[in-house]
Each structure stands twice: as C-alpha cells, then as structure tokens.
Amino acid sequence: MLELAILGFLYGTPLHGYELRKRITALTGHVRPVAESTLYPAIKRLEKAGLLARETQPGSVAAPRHVLTLTDDGRRELLRRLAEPEQGEITDENRWFTLLAFLRHLEDGAAQTAVLRRRLTFLEQPASFFYDGERPLSAEELGDPFRKGILTVARATSEAELAWLHATIDSLAPGDRH
Fold first, then answer.
1. 97 SS3 class
2. SS3 label, residue 78
3. Which of 98, 102, 124 is nearest to 177 (CA)?
4. Cβ 70 vs Cβ 7: under 8 Å
5. Fewer CB in 10 Å around end: N or C, the chain?
C-alpha cells in the first residue's frame, strides 16, 4: 500500500520526502500513520529497483532537499500495479481506497472497468463479521446492539459502494453489464 501510494503521488509531479509524507498521511494517516522509519526505507527500495530517481536541490532557507521523481520504469510499474492489483488490494478496504485514489492514472477505461468489476464481485459475495458455524449472521439475528451496529454500518457502506461501482462501470462501459 505504501509503495503504491509513493508511486501514485509521484506520477503527476516530483516531490520531496516531506511533501510526499504529508500527502500519504492525508490519504491513509487516519488508518495507518506513515512514520519516517517506514517511508524512507520504502523510498530507498523503490530507488534501488530503478523506479524512483532522486535529485538534490538547494533549500531556500534550510539544508538541500531531495526531490523524488518516477522513472519510466516507475511509471510502467505503477500502471501495472493499478491494472493488475493483488487480491488484498481488492478485498482490504484501506488498500482498496489507496488503489482507487490512483486508478485515474490508468487511462484505458476497459482496464479501469476490469479492476472495478473485481471489487464488485468481491462485494457481492455474502459475508459477515459474525457467524453461526459457517452461516453468516445478519444484523437482525444479533442480540448485541454493538455488533448489530457494526453490521448495520457495514451494510450501508457496502450498499453505497455497490451503487457507486455500478454507476461508474456503466459510465465507463455503457451497456456492458456483466
């Protein structure tokens, strides 16, 4: 998720580490704060893989700044990750939101639609947080008002996302419902 966010934010514009960290924190910080001890090793890994380039620029008042840009390989890697996300990026809500934040960089509507269809298929599977053996329990079956709350909020969120997915898929591929 962190590497995808780094590649995604650098796709449009070169950034220095501090600005990159601010943007990633704004996207994911409420769920997964980004510490320097996590961000900078990820940047180094991407640099070592040839996906990022670093340029030192003089600072206006402080020390020199390191500005990061995507290499051509970095652009190709971002587009590959967007077009072929891992299953966890489809099923995990936080990873999904990170992927979704950059899906616009895939300019091919068919490729975007394919990713959205994978999420749609996942959301249409019967699921619950609570089970009676193998059978998922509905909110109505729970006596615990707090667990009922979890399922009620999750259902409303899923219904809103399903409606958005259907509308977006229809706008990207009109008349092509599968």
1. helix
2. helix
3. 124
4. yes
5. C
